[in-house]
Amino acid sequence: MSEKSNSCLSCGACCATFRVSFYWAEADDGGGAVPSRLTEKVNDWTRCMRGTWAASPRCVALQGEVGGSVGCGIYPQRPVACREVEAGSPQCLRARAAHGLPAMVGQASGHAADNVPMPGLASTPLPELAPG
């Protein structure tokens, strides 16, 4: 594996910066693969990964410490929004900056077809909602 393909395994910032929202049917109880027990309802059509709809988001599936050795506990079942993340994209750079990590240079091209800009993620962290 090249350094480019491993760059996310030493980062994880996007998993601890943005709300990871996706169509409800991507969850396993809707016929998809994302474990529904790791999600929460946003509205009738949308879910998000548990932990990402908070003032200090962190996906429940993120393993390890941001900026260190990290991985996704549900990588094969992750939602489309996560599959669309591209190392070095504007969203990636914002997430890295939010965690004090240096920018990645020259990372936004040459990745596999399942890594394209991530329209399914909020561009800024969302505030925690009050219960009720």
UniProtKB/TrEMBL annotation:
InterPro entries: Puta_zinc/iron-chelating_dom. Pfam families: CxxCxxCC. This is Zinc/iron-chelating domain-containing protein. It comes from Chromobacterium alticapitis.
